[in-house]
TrEMBL record:
Function: Part of the Tol-Pal system, which plays a role in outer membrane invagination during cell division and is important for maintaining outer membrane integrity.
Record gene name: tolB
Organism this protein belongs to: Salinisphaera aquimarina
Location of region: Disordered: 404-433
Main localization, broad class: periplasm
Pfam families in the record: PD40 (PF07676), TolB_N (PF04052), Tricorn_N (PF26549)
Keyword Cell division annotated: yes
Span of domain TolB N-terminal: 30-129
UniProt record similarity statement: Belongs to the TolB family.
Polar residues biased stretches: 404-421
Protein name in the entry: Tol-Pal system protein TolB
Quaternary structure and partners: The Tol-Pal system is composed of five core proteins: the inner membrane proteins TolA, TolQ and TolR, the periplasmic protein TolB and the outer membrane protein Pal. They form a network linking the inner and outer membranes and the peptidoglycan layer.
Amino acid sequence: MTKLYSRKIFALITTLAFALLASSQAQAALQVDITDSSQSAIPIAIAPFGGSLPLDVAQVASNDLESTGLFKVFDRNNMVGKPTSPEQVNYDNWRTSSVDNLVVGSAAPNGQGGYRMTFDLLDVYQGRSVASFQINAAGNELRDAAHTVANLIYEKFVGKKGYFLSRISYITMAKEGGGLRYRLIVSDYDGNNPATVYSSRDPIMSPSWSPDGRDLAYVAFDVKRGRSSLRVQDLASGNIREISSRSGINGAPSWSPDGSRLVMTLSFRGNPDIYSYNLNTNQLTQLTNNGAIDTEASWSPDGSHIVFTSDRGGKPQVYRMRSDGGQVERLTFEGESNQRASYSPDGSQLTFVQKGGSGFRIAVMDLQNNNIRIVSQGPLDDSPNFAPNGQAVIYAKQGRSNELATVSTDGQTRSRLSQSGEVREPAWGPLGY
């Protein structure tokens, strides 16, 4: 592969980024809309918490659970009462509302400038409490406390930790000051508390979270100089460490499970190949050496293997190799092409983009039997990666409006995270607790 080809790749990426411009300014936060819910959604009601709180904790927790599509949250305007403790519940009245599960709670000052919240999960038909919880939160931690309420309820029913304290990163583009402004944004999983961690007049691509959630790796372009740089940014301090700004492509970073290494695509030797970079020793190791384009590498959760995209078979497909570059095998054969794969947190599944008759859609592959499920509707879906508990996938949905979306791994439940302007390249961070 020649250096001229690498420059063409750079030019193409830049051209596409400009062509995808949305005319309106990006708003402050994403808006979550439920588009499809599971037919077996769990009926639950969360009554307003008693006590004087500056945040409606019960409503935030309700929104969290409803956003998964796994819970059917009862409208509080139709509640037969607003109890704040189990003793206040008239179970006969609640049974007439077809509510199987009820959450009641209250809050009081904890004497340290914060609040102590207590709440119970009630089985309406058995007429009893099945779980009681207590949370202490500082005055500025009430939204996190509300997410914790939802996490505890979610884990009680689903059996896995909830992801409501996790964060996401994504990239926005908008017109500003007569030109384009690109922003790398980090927010709560639901789009609240967005913060710009890097901003540029030139494109930004491929954000990737470190396993501990403290750093983001990403690619920043310098269009005038015709170069790109792969960076790691400390989210707390804002400090940026440049990993590679070699000639050609510096792209597609992904962290090892222990956070000590990055895999990336580099073409400074002429051909786009996959390399491993040791963040402690600065040692660079070439993992692939093939005449095809090898890119979009991602580590398995146990660190033993890496999946990547290669067109060595004629069209882009997903391949797997040992983390030292050995034993390369092709994993995907269905569809016109498959690319941008990443592992589920438990290593049992892959998600990737499959091109077929309905366009580009998100697929989930069971690695035990190689069965593939198409979980999104297309026609231009991209950048999938798993929620930190493995129950859902976030991806970019392109079309008349470009937005982020989530879908359960069985494809039954969907939600949309929308805002004005261009939103793309989502990455889901770790659980957050």
